Amino acid sequence: MAGEAKAIELDLRDTYVSLTRMASPKACSRGRCRLRPRYIATGVARASASTGRTNGEVAERAGHLVFQFRTILNGFLFAQGGEPIMEDGVCVGAVGISGGTTGQLDENIAKESLSA
């Protein structure tokens, strides 16, 4: 997987990838097994899948009531690291990354994982 290769290249020990395809979460982890990044990665994947957009684009609006409602009700996390999986212009799922040293790094790895 391209995302895992990027994490290895950057020597990140706790990078988690969560693929949500048609609301079916799957997880792939590297390094020590810590639960928090896995749940964060799943939340950012769900958020990206719900909007069909990169979380970095909508993170600034996450303070709005409708986004807070989605966050609480559905376990969404509007933070960098979520990228939609698009097929024929339709969002069919998302990739979520957590465990990098910055949100921007999580987002870069998520984009890298979709480029392969």
Walkthrough of the structure:
The protein is globular and about 40 Å long. It has one domain (2-115): Haem-degrading domain (Beta-Lactamase), CATH 3.30.450.150. It is built from five helices and four strands; from the N terminus they run αββαααββα. It has helices at 2-9, 35-51, 55-58, 65-74, 103-115; strands at 15-21, 24-30, 82-87, 90-98. 45% of the residues lie in helices and 25% in strands. By secondary structure, it is α+β, with helices and mostly antiparallel strands.
CATH fold name: Beta-Lactamase
CATH class: Alpha Beta
Q: What oligomerization state is this entry in? A: single chain
Q: Roughly what percent helix?
A: 40-55%
How many extended strands?
Answer: 4
Kindly name the structural category.
Answer: alpha+beta
User: What Rg is obtained from the alpha carbons, in whole angstroms?
Assistant: 13 Å
Tell me, briefly, the overall form.
globular
Kindly report the average pLDDT value. Answer: 77
Element string (H = helix, E = strand): HEEHHHEEH
The total number of structural domains is 1
Termini separation (Å)? 8 Å
> Architecture, according to CATH?
2-Layer Sandwich
Biggest sheet, strands in spatial order? Answer: 2-1-4-3
Q: Count of DSSP helices?
A: 5
Low-confidence stretches at least 5 residues in length (pLDDT < 50)?
Answer: none
Q: DSSP strand (E) fraction?
A: 25-35%
